[in-house]
DNA sequence: GTAGGTTCTTTAATTAAGTTAACTTACATG
DNA sequence: CATGTAAGTTAACTTAATTAAAGAACCTAC
């Protein structure tokens, strides 16, 4: 437990004010004081510091309510910039954004596999360096680099503990980047970064307890509890792709049987489809060897009722798993993402129906289930949000 | 977010000191200062207040390490007393304890069913009143009443939202007791209270992330995250008895199929046993109609290999479900409780084996899985712990 | 047995930062 | 233009932590 101190008290109040301006700006000092229980002088002096730090700026005058017009405060979106890196299994996606998350520039780089840990870190530094030098006019105003890394990540130490697709272990990513750049560096698991992206830029804004589930080649989730990312004891909280949902189910890549992944992931949809084709189902899908989940989606779009049935079935399985999540973590919101969710028009009705049918209490039926609207650079935006957490929520007391 | 203030800073520091003394006492002021980063004068003055409040007292002198002997501080266990109430589906268990959780007195009362909400509240007040008057010499020193209520509970409002076995809804328990007694009143769901009991008095001491799973007639869990009880959005976090684990499994009381409960609860063990007996298994168990999980346990103890096999199978199912928990919540510790765990000698080896085999990462294999050692009044102790949370962790700034 | 060093605890002065109360600025209205 | 009201600032005050120093109690060594 962190002890109470003057410094801590001040930075807490600064964070509160900053977060208020971010979420509800333009807002006046007086309004902040009313909402936060802080006194006007306290708000005034802390706002002054924030303006000196250039995170906050005064904007227009508000309308008078019978007296002096309030001076509205807003975040100075263009005062600082951040780099977000989505380090996936086969490529690296980089973005440069302002404090509002507006993407100024982006770049993609392929990884040449196989790769050693040294090569990986060198390439990471290299592509980041390129992003900085390509946009020199921002470089003095960059405050941090966020990295969303696939696999198991120790976010405290900024280390990649295990990246299965690269087959690399124990890479000190934060250390490597910190040695090369003067910016703050934060590293997080990609699924968790995605969840953070939703809370900062997506539909998760203002929700304290949410789960962002990614359904693609694999299935993973980021869990936000009481406003903070939740890691668990050994950084595997949210590895729900490997939640057993069918005791007698198909074998999973992890070696177990009946993992959730084995019924809802992209590859599993393809596998199930092939199985049915073999059994002689009536369908327009004929290519037994190369059929993918996307093919199934396209066939469904073209009116193939068999393909539609496959997707409906998948939606049911997703719904069952999400109900398990609701009965365990009981979030206020679940946001779905990933390739499989491209078929959301087929999936969502049955997902919602399944949850409504299976959930235990009436109140839990109201759990919001939506599809992410963040788009292409969602994970990289989550990486950027890692920096925003430090800037806004953590303490507001950074040297800038 | 709560604003920073002098009061808040002080009470936070007081809590830190108090918790330190609780967990590591007898301990000296100097040692507290070293461990907590607080300065000696701060520790000194706050300890003085705690001594004035009679929560803390000076005990023996410690041994000198080359200088003045330290004065050791301990919690004054007998300064205050608490009442813990376990309000189960058919009976009420009350205990009176000191601050260490030592049980001074206990009483059990049957509920006469069916019962109305008014009758229930009246009986609750009545039995509590009896406990107080039967032990008058403690009554002036009682600081609070904790209630562990089965069913869905709104812990913030102190309301029982739904008690399925009594078929009662929306009972204002805290309000009713507060109107009758001058003590602080806290209400919580029973499974969560049990988890709290483990963190305060059981094997969960010092663990920040733990799940206490109760396997009996039903299956439920209390989740502790970052040291706090976790409720979820609508107070159903931890309702893992209804986690679907077998897509094509047996029908559950909740209406779904293949809930975890349907393979590990006491009744499910009996049902499965009957099924096998029908199929002509070789066993000493013959009474097809009335066989219970306890009979299976006894048969196993007597050497019946069929009964042992049933239990082993049950252990496997428990292990699978716990692995799901690890992949979702990733706690440092799981503590098992409830009637079924009486067969722990048969269950535990296979539970641990199953988890070790199925869990994704090496680090997660170290998740501690143990059987509760709290004994009979475990849930009532959890109710008592609700009061301790207020006293120790919440703010240390109560009027005493 | 006493001097010097060490550790524990308390006292006194200082400082950080929030709070209170009063004041200034700026605007609206009659 | 006088009055009232809201926004923001200034100055005095208060709280509670921190710093510095003193005092208390003990140990070891000469």
Radius of gyration of chain A, taken over Cα atoms and rounded to an integer in Å:
23 Å
Q: Summarize the main sheet of chain A.
A: 5 strands, mixed
For this structure, what is the CATH homologous superfamily of the largest domain in chain A?
ATPase, nucleotide binding domain
Strand content of chain A: 15-25%
The total beta strand count of chain A reads 16
- Uncertain runs of chain A are none
How many domains would you count in the coordinates of chain A? 3
CATH topology of the largest domain in chain A: Nucleotidyltransferase, domain 5
- Tell me the quaternary state: homodimer
Proper CATH architecture of the largest domain in chain A: 2-Layer Sandwich
Summed over residues and divided by their number, the pLDDT of chain A gives a mean of 92
Shape descriptor of chain A reads globular
CATH domain class of the largest domain in chain A? Alpha Beta
Query: How are the strands of the largest sheet of chain A arranged?
Result: 6-5-4-7-11
Topology as H/E string of chain A? HEHHEEEEEHHEEEEHEHEEEHHHHEHEH
Approximate helicity band of chain A? 40-55%
How many helical elements of chain A?
A: 13
Largest interface: A-B, 64 and 64 residues
